[in-house]
## 1
Amino acid sequence: MDTERPPKLVGAAWTLLIINTLGSTGAQTVIPLPRSVSQLVTMGSLMTAFVLALVLNPRIRIRPSAYLLLLTFLLITSIVASVDLQSGLGALFRCFRFSVFLATLWLLTRWWDGGVTFVRHHIRAYGAILVTVAIGLVVAPGKAFPDIYGGRLSGAVWPLTPPQVGQYAAVIAGLSLLLWLGRRTDRWSALAVVVPSLGLLLLTHTRTATLGLVVGLAVALGSLLLTSSRARKVFVWSALVVGFAAVALASALQTWFLRGQSADNFSSLTGRAKVWDALLDAPRSTFDYVFGIGLTDKSYAGLPIDSSWLAVYYEQGFLGIGLVAAFLLVLVVVAVLRPPSLQRACAMFLIAYCLSASYTEAGLGDASPYLLHLAVAASLLARGPASESAETNFIPGGGARR
């Protein structure tokens, strides 16, 4: 199907989808926000995004997407598991939210043409969110480093947890660096995003996001080594810097990594392993094994599950795990088969980040930032004029043509 230049309001719809996935719980904020108000904002942003996408695409012209098709099957599985109300009426509400979320993504596929448009929307939206985190850090440092999170950086303007802040910072830092490598942005613009983002990431002490950034960039740079001299230089310098830091700053890195935790707490993944063991040991019916118990708030016995795979197993059963594995496999295979390009590198970064984070973060089975990261990857891998032009203009050994 023919593609066209995305209207500016597409970026607004994407930003509203991101706002919806921010959640409504976290640290104390400078101006106290009742949970009902924050929920109204997040849910209202989703409905507004859907209406806006429908206005922009009234004829419902969509592009085929194996990723979204498999997500749609996952939604059907979630509805089947939720109708008996094992998880209460909240399960049906979460299914409704997931439905609107997916419908909005389908409407926006009209502009998935293999270009970096949605990468830029992603960076701008999450960059704006991180600006609010920085404002909270300056205005109310006491609330930005609450004791409840062990003095880690949180959102003091909008309630954001340290893992959320770390995730957003890592993703936009990695994408901005890749845009600079592909000559889609200048050095100073990239530095204006990367340096503050890395600073916020370090203040969150978020190991999952840091590891995801390192793994994602290693995979993305590796995909460009044979075709981009700039990528080779960055890869070599990064390896040297990491090697030097590992030797010269070993003690400081160990302190940052451990976050003052005991050996027992660290070995149990900050208590996650105990929750996981209890979840796996709990008795389940055959129906629960296949379909799960329906969408929940990603907790078990009042404690967060903090694992995408176990959360999907708990909520959508083995069928859900199979569907999640299927859409991740589809994205990986398509990315590997694409010719080298900036778009493929960005997609591989996002896929690798989500895969590495899925072990200790939930989000692959319901409307979440992780599904939006993978949606950006799917938009980058879509066939269209932008992707074909990128592949044609990518010069072996010299990077992208300016």
## 2
Amino acid sequence: MDTIASLFSFITTPVSWVIVQFHSVYGKVFGPDTGWAWGLSIVSLVILIRICLIPLFVKQIKATRAMQTLQPEMKKIQERYKNDKQRQSEEMMKLYKESGTNPLSSCLPILAQSPFFFALYHVLNGIASNTTIGVINDSLLASAQKAHIFGAPLAAKFTDGSSKVEALGATLTDVRVVTAIMIVMMSASQFYTQRQLMTKNVDTTVKTPFMQQQKMLMYVFPVMFAIFGINFPVGVLVYWLTTNVWTMGQQMYVIRNNPTPGSKAQAAYLERLTKHVTHHEKTRSRGERAIVKAIVSKGRDRNEFERKFINSLTKVGLVAQADGTVAKGESTAVETEDGTPTTATPRRQQPKRQTKAQRQSAAAKAADDSAENAPDDADEPKTSLSKSDEPEDAKPATAAKKPAPKPAGGTRSKAQSGQRKGPQRPKSPSKK
């Protein structure tokens, strides 16, 4: 390990300088020789490094998403060339090249942290061996050796003997209890981070060997941390525990606000987004607009959760726009499971069946209304003695409709007297 750490000796000076600067700040608050001053200096170093690695973390997310998108194609290649491993590898590399995806991009944050990790290990190992390193001089070295975290010196290890631990001003029991608790917390945080990634943020619609590998790593990494953790100084355990907690919180934020398409996290996110959008009738943030824009751009390639989101907006009269906003609309088109849009026509409601008394009252009321709307001359009673220019059977009824217009060809109506089309007025009884 000393040989590996010496390879990163070029970065030990910057790392030790950063720790000393943070120690000068915390030393004024907690005291220069306390474990809080040195421990918080290491925690601040981790936070500073992780902030600088955020661009790499974003690149890691994009690479992971691209790999998940390629899973169906990778599965086809594996099935097609399952008996020819060399051809299978060639086709995989060709697929990576065409899509511009690099499988190693998901490992960038870990690889970028490695120099800082080994440099910090080298610095703490120098403190344990009473050796000045970087910008840590003799006075800072003596102060660091006096610093204890819950009774365990920063440079002590789980495997150290009692004589070495006593030389650092501690007991073997305190060192092993503190280191054991920190190793368990470090392994548990690593396991939980990987588990929430596998259970919530993985596309469940695609089953590939890549998912099995990730599931295996969920158990392998915590065991590796537990095995190697007994050889790490307390200061290095503080470093790894802090970076694991940071990774866990960062992963939870990404899963909640930018989930993987097709995952359970996306279903939960779109359900929350539906409630927010339908309540406010707009997308409130840039992240929400980016999600809606991506869903609209997919078209018929949307998954079941995305189609459910679009249909939920349609039902309340909202339409997702191409720029990620939503607007009120009258579109009633919904998408089926295969992504085909259909028009949701409202079902025709059948009128309630009326009773005989209701039908008779309605007919009487209609007759009264027609009588009121009749012309004035129709109200005058007529007798059989009154003369008329037209035959009685040729006169139109009062409540009859107007005759239809004559055909354009000028043909006469074939209706004869007594055979008129439509309803006819009954003849008035003659008085004798």
## 3
Amino acid sequence: MQSGEIVQRAIDYIEDHLTESLTLEGIADVAAMSLPNLYRLFHSLTGHPIKEYIRKRRINEAANCLRNSDLPTIDIGYRCGFESYPTFIKTFKRLTGQTPGQYRRSQVVYSFERMNLKEHVSYLEERALSERFPEVRVIRLNPQQGIGHLFVSEYEEGIETAAIDHFRERLSSHRIDLNGLRLFGWNVDMEGETKPFGYQLLAVGTMEQAEMMKHSELYSLTLAGGLYAVARTPSVAEDSIQNTWNRLFSEWLPRSVFEQGKHEFIEEYALNRDQIVRMKLYLPVERSKLVKPIEIVQLSSLKVMRFRRTGIDCVKQADEASIAWLCRNGLMEDSRIRIFMHCDGGLLDEGSVYEVYIAPPEDFLPSCEEADLQVELEGGMYACLESGAAGTMTGVLERVDRWLDMSTEYRPDPGRFWYASYLPKEEADLGMIRVKCYVPVQIMS
């Protein structure tokens, strides 16, 4: 039996007896290993000493009880396996930074979920990266089977919440409580349909439940799974979700040994009393086949239409303004247009700036009213790096900056700004995002 299977046996036993008195000798007996080996292998494969794993799991259960019940704190401590109330209070404050009473009133979410080593993926990574992004884990998500529901809407905003509410109503007619199921969701392109936006939900339960579905909107569904980078959102607020996606996509991914995979982007929801209380984001990844080189290119200047917005909602506003302009001028489906982007700040700050540039066909003449939108992207020498990242491009820019720091031929040109060019669909791989990031440089004198 492999080490992972042995340690998983220990984890399963801990989970089955989490609220009871546990001894390390008893766990070692169940796992059929010596106590020293249990210490060593458990820490090696989970990253946590076994005693600390038990404490964190018990505090996770206690945190859920505090939020989801009116039980007295002392009862929760004993119910979650702590032998004394002072030990529970001390451990809870050490791990969450708050007393149980403070936690119950706050918006902080403490979470330490049960580990499944079958999903664990071992990979070589820079230590600096894992320390910088401790919240990101790469897992192999096993296929998930359950009850499916596709929600369609005329509007994209708020579609996730509306889909979950609709799904809950349909399941309740079968006396199935959505709160007790693992819930996944992902966007579906409904191109050509009357309602263009779709959101697919999957409630993972027993296959017997799925096969019993008679409702036309409910059916048996299997999510194929695959390799994912997973991160939990600090809160379920929209800006927190956007920030987490940006951190995964534009900061972690370009620095990792992975690239974007071709399977679904997924969101997982934890529900309580009809409310979304926690979310995990799943970025599909695959191991990078090669490292894209940084090239020095000479670009000509280019006239573009600029859509600049500032503030917390700058990304959405700039995108909407550029799309509206394309529609007004009948260029929405024109394959000749080229799209560029530049941003400053974290995209969620009051001082953030986001700019979309559209290079129209050569024969296009802007109207007098729109003449002030036309600007020029400066030509010159640029360091170019192709990537599958999106968002702020932080990771891509950092890699180019490190390369320039070591270069004996080139240095950054502070007189010009960087920008990213989105590749046309026909140049992308199966519709995946591909961009070229251009950082202005000059030859060292």
## 4
Amino acid sequence: MNTRMRRAAVAVAAGAMAVSLAACGSAKEAGDKTKETGAAAGDAIKVGLLLPENQTARYEKFDKPLIEKTVKELTGGKGEVVYANAKQDATTQNSQVDTMITNKVNVLIVDAVDSKAIAGSVKKAKEAGIPVVAYDRLAEGPIDAYTSFDNEEVGKVQGKALLEALGDKAKDGQIVMMNGSVTDPNAKLFKSGAHSVLDGKVNIGKEYDTVEWKPENANTNMAAALSALGKDKVIGVYSANDGMAGGIITALKAAGLSTLPPVTGQDAELAGVQRIVAGEQFMSVYKPYAPEAEAAAKMAVALAKGEKVTGVTTSTVDSPTTKGVPAVLIPVVSLTKNNIKDTVIKDGVYTADEICTDKYAAACATLGLK
């Protein structure tokens, strides 16, 4: 790269981001390094994609293939996605970042297992001249861009749906709150949003932060809550996602409840949608994965090529270590039995045949899904 090109590239990098970092060095210096590395790549870029776990169906079924598809489209088929899944282990994910640095990827898309634990690895990547896009969860460290959903709004949508299901009986008993993992910054936002809607309008009998978002841990917690509160006293359950809702509903059935209380969820997993059809789960939060994945891919390709992300981003967010991160926040939808056809089926997430297996055929017919 000649001197004029280098100066122009540095100027673009400086204009694209205004980031203040805590104990992460100069944002301008990091931007200069990534600009020089990315600008030489052209379309033949390598995008490192690090996803956090495979307990939740969305990552392997939607996020990965959607990101791969968009990277290919944006690079004329020349771009390559190098993929790794941490399987809910933060140490493994840090090692995966090291491997990506060794393999000289041009950019990283990272959905952090633990937003704090990843910060050192993000800094290492930046020092190696590799820009980082935080995906779905706001990683700490000197990230260059971020895309996710409005996560506090997710909690509000869940809380409002639960209140709707309870109606005028909202204070006739107690609800159980099953929040996500404390290592996930999104879980804190879901919880905050839900509390902003529910506090003062329901009686919260028990509340849990669920280790690693695991359904079996939610099942154990729900069984303990039923034992402590009495199964007939629980009138509703706030579950932060569909996987945990499955564990919760199993516990409710095991307790011998003939009529299940309303249970919330998130992610519109196939099993969750089927439980909604069957009347076992009241709602889920449908998060359109395509626009989130496309935004991440667009930002990653731009950064790898040494271009601005401001043509993609629509807002900014602050993490505990980085201020003014360019961001794309995707709106969410409350998914109930009344809008399955107009959301996940219409968008091609699932077909009616996938949802309406023999077990759910009668319920589907009632809802007009077949």
